[in-house]
Amino acid sequence: MRLDLEKIFNQAVQDHGSANLDSKGYQSRMMHGVQIVRDDKTKKIQIFNPGGKNYYEELTDEQYDLFQKGWRRGVYDLVLEQYKKRLEVLEKKIAEEVSKKKANASISGFTKQRLSIMNKYFKITQKKNEQK
């Protein structure tokens, strides 16, 4: 099944939850850090993901596939995927600190980060389930 990026872009434009980031030369919308951009000249549409970095990366083919069921569902699935990865990293860090058998601030910090991500994960999951 081929992904219709024009359809996805139009859904993003019409979605009240998407922030308008239009500028000279392109149209753009963002939701939960996921950005979709259409170049005014070439009409090329791309979706970008912050991935917790200071810059945006275009989605991989597998990540584009998450948008088969539409803009909002794709955003939710992509964000949940990222949260899972971040939780896995935090779990490893917590385990490493615990294995050192020292009570330290790192464990507390990692635990707070984990709780924050879990809360965000839960909220996005609720939104996704409401959409069905």
- Tell me the quaternary state: single chain
Main sheet specs = 5 strands, antiparallel
Poorly predicted runs of 5 or more residues: none
Summed up, the domain count is 1
Strand coverage percent: 15-25%
What is the CA-CA span between the terminal residues?
21 Å
In order across it, which strands form the biggest sheet? Answer: 1-2-3-4-5
Mean pLDDT: 91
Please tell me what the overall shape is. Answer: elongated
- Rg computed from alpha carbons, rounded to a whole number of angstroms: 18 Å
Question: What helical percentage do the residues reach?
Answer: 40-55%
Topology order in helix (H) and strand (E) letters: HEEEEEHHH
* Secondary-structure class: alpha+beta
Q: How many DSSP E strands? A: 5
Number of helices: 4
What structural keywords apply?
4 helices; alpha+beta; single chain; 132 residues; 5 strands; five-stranded antiparallel sheet; 54% helix
Put the structure in a nutshell.
The protein is of the alpha+beta class and 132 residues long. It contains 4 helices and 5 strands, in the order αβββββααα.
